[in-house]
Design brief:
The structure holds two protein chains of two kinds. By secondary structure, chain A is of the alpha/beta class. Chain A has helices at residues 82-91, 106-115, 127-130, and strands at residues 18-21, 23-26, 29-36, 41-42, 47-48, 53-54, 70-73, 76-77, 98-101, 119-121, 136-140, 145-149. Chain B is an alpha/beta fold. Chain B has a five-stranded parallel β-sheet with strand order 12-11-10-13-14, sandwiched between helices. In chain B, strands 8-7-6-9 form a four-stranded parallel β-sheet. Chain B has a three-stranded parallel β-sheet with strand order 3-2-4, with helices on one face. In chain B, strand 10 (311-319), helix 12 (321-331) and strand 11 (342-346) form a beta-alpha-beta unit. Chain B is globular. The chains are: A alpha/beta, B alpha/beta.
Chain lengths: 156, 430
């Protein structure tokens, strides 16, 4: 791909503020509002699967749901029930739309696979410095690209 | 893309049946997500295959809503339902489950939930999956050997498998273990590879650590210090035994996510300090001294305030026979207080032995229950009205108060038994 901004349905669109290049974890393309945390997330015991809400005491996202968001986070921690907890969130319709993470583990890899959401890692820039909660983010898992529109959904 | 052997290509092509094909499809997606280049073969898999609460079965009602539907659509993440044959891996074992098979009414479980539990267990056994129902398969009949490639779930079992035995497993999940039971493969990544297993940080132990209470505290400190890195523990640690490693590893896996630790002169991949680090340059150095020990004790007891203890839970990870013997000796001739309760959790295999020894009878006569399959955290079950629990496990005190929104105390097994009999917490740092 030569252009730094994608074209969809033949319509030119607002150029993204930032484009990051990384490695595909799970393919597919999805876009939505970013939910960003610098803290790793526990699956079993750390989230409520039926609401997609983070429930861990002292977590900066405690009480916040990742359902329908592009979750930007370092990765997984805690119990081996991580994939199961996120898989149940998927079953309950509360999975994130896509995932961007920085530290690869078996927990987060398996969780992304069974949720079947586009996921990218090994980025050429620091996603925590470049992406804020509320930014509009497209995760292109197939190409391993992240497109960021600062400040929310772009208007053509 | 993960490279496949001819045999693996055939499995993916359906030569060994639809279930093995779907298992391989999932494992290929998983290996590619990790960036693994190949698979390793495994004959030793520990997971929770196919067991599910009723609402998960209901979610697959259109596919039949049964064990087969859940195993296909959920465990194997398959778009279609397939016939599930007996598992292929020689050691395919079921870890802990949701309730005690006998005392489930005392746990507050409904007859419907129990009927679902019984039905799942019949399917598990029928598919050749060993009904170990424990977080300690290594105490119940599945003991791996040095260098063996395994695919295990359960963080306390994973860290034991890697560190104490020197077998090799990543922290697998439900779906990867179910698939591995059929395909006998897991991605060759992480802890399967020698280069990945060398130590990263040093923990210098400067206070004597000898009994299980001290090993548990040291483990909790180590996890907090190194997080999910690989620690090398050196210094004044003595009295290594299965139960001490069990409590140390469970604690380190809870406070930090440790999946492998080396203990110099104790664990098999650390005959010397140099061997433990291998070619890796030692990172940080953490000191466990009297002050660190006192801080760890305070942290573990930070959620205790009322000294009126109405619940004592022992057996996290599941108690070994010698621990049940100790509890029986401590409580013989005494009674659990009317204001308290004592639940001791173990595996079914160990409970049989405890019954033969007469320990089960001693516990019953004292008003305590010897239970299997689960624990209060996994089942989210405590006696009705529980507000304050006493625990001899750093892992359990890490999880249970948060999960059940209760207070918790950490102490020795003797202090916990005493609290159960008096209804009062009198623990202190020795």
């Amino acid at each position: 791909m030569s252009a730094s901004h994608p074209v969809q349905d033949g319509q030119p669109e607002v150029q993204p503020t930032i484009v990051l290049h990384g490695r595909k974890v799970v393919g597919g393309v999805a876009e939505g509002e970013a939910l960003v945390t610098r803290e790793t997330i526990s699956g079993w015991g750390g989230i409520h699967a039926l609401t997609g809400m983070v429930i861990e005491s002292r977590h900066e996202l405690k009480g916040v749901s990742f359902a329908g968001k592009v979750l930007v986070f370092p990765g997984a921690k805690g119990s081996s029930g991580w994939s199961n907890a996120f898989h149940m969130a998927k079953l309950a319709g509360k999975a994130p739309l896509a995932m961007v993470f920085t530290v690869m583990t078996t927990k987060v890899a398996l969780g992304a696979v069974v949720m079947r959401v586009p996921a990218v890692t090994d980025l050429d820039g620091d996603p925590f410095a470049l992406i804020s909660t509320g930014d509009w983010v497209r995760v292109d898992g197939d190409r391993g690209r992240i497109y960021v529109w600062k400040g929310g959904r772009p208007r053509a | 893309m993960v490279a496949l052997t001819l045999r693996e290509q055939a499995m993916l092509g359906g030569d060994e049946g639809a279930a093995v094909q779907k298992a391989m499809e999932l494992l290929v997606r998983y290996a590619d997500a990790l960036g693994a280049e190949r698979f390793v073969e495994t004959d030793n898999v520990a997971g929770v295959p196919g067991s599910s609460p009723q609402w998960v079965k209901d979610a697959f009602k259109a596919d039949g809503g049964d064990y087969r539907a859940v195993f296909s659509r959920y465990d194997l993440d398959s778009d279609v339902v397939v016939d599930v044959p007996p598992m292929k891996a020689g050691f395919s074992c079921h870890l802990q489950g949701g309730m005690d098979p006998e005392h489930w009414p005392q746990m507050g479980m409904s007859p419907q939930a129990h009927a679902n539990f019984v039905a799942d267990e019949r399917e598990v056994a029928g598919h050749g999956i060993q009904v170990m129902k424990t977080c300690t398969p290594y105490l119940a009949g599945n003991m791996p050997v040095f260098g063996e490639h395994c695919a295990w779930m359960e963080s306390s079992a994973v860290v034991f498998c890697n560190s104490v035995v020197g077998a090799r497993t990543n922290t697998e999940g439900r779906e990867s273990t179910s698939a591995a039971m059929l395909a006998k493969r897991v991605p060759d990544w992480g802890f399967h590879q020698t280069d990945f297993r060398h130590g990263q940080h040093l923990v210098d132990v400067q206070v004597p650590v000898g009994d299980i209470f001290e090993w548990g505290m040291l483990g909790y400190f180590v996890g907090g210090a190194v997080q999910d890195a690989i620690p090398v523990i050196d210094g004044s640690v003595s009295g290594a035994s299965v139960i001490r490693h069990k409590h140390f590893g469970a604690a380190a896996a809870s406070s930090g996510g440790v999946e492998l630790y080396h203990m110099v002169g104790v664990t098999p991949e650390a005959p010397t300090l140099e061997a433990a680090f291998g070619p890796r340059k030692p990172g940080e150095r953490f000191v466990y001294d009297a002050a660190a020990r006192a801080r760890t004790y305070e942290t573990l007891n930070a959620v205790g305030s009322s000294r009126d203890v109405d619940f004592v839970m022992l057996g996290c990870p599941h108690a070994a026979l010698e621990q049940i013997a100790e509890i029986a000796a401590l409580i013989e001739g005494r009674r659990v207080s009317a204001n308290s309760a004592l639940w001791v959790f173990t595996s079914r295999a160990v409970k049989l032995a405890a019954q033969a020894q007469g320990y089960d009878r001693v516990l019953r006569d004292a008003g305590a229950l010897l239970m299997t399959d689960t624990c209060s955290s996994i089942s989210q079950a405590v006696p009705k009205g529980t507000r304050v629990a006493a625990l001899d496990s750093a892992k359990q005190v890490h999880y249970l108060p948060a999960i059940m929104n209760i207070e918790g105390w950490y102490g020795t097994t003797a202090e916990c038994v005493d609290a159960a009999c008096t209804g009062r917490w009198n623990g202190r740092l020795p």
